[in-house]
Amino acid sequence: MARCDVCGNDYDKTFTVTTPEGATHVFDSIECAAHAIAPTCAHCGCRILGHGVEADGQIFCCAACARQVGVQKVRA
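The chain above was modelled as a monomer; its predicted structure follows.
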């Protein structure tokens, strides 16, 4: 069994995620994985679990948040 990197649960159904940078993490749930590796919105700070919106080198949870920081060329 492996131990979750976030909560420390020793579980027989953990899974491993390798990031594009090559870091490897072990999780026991999608919740723990999202907490550890999902990007956060550059405006509101929420975890981005979908596609998000990328503009000016930043990622946002939605077009409304991107517009809040002055990004003009986004659609809702």
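Strands lie at 2-3, 10-11, 15-18, 24-27, 53-55, 58-60.
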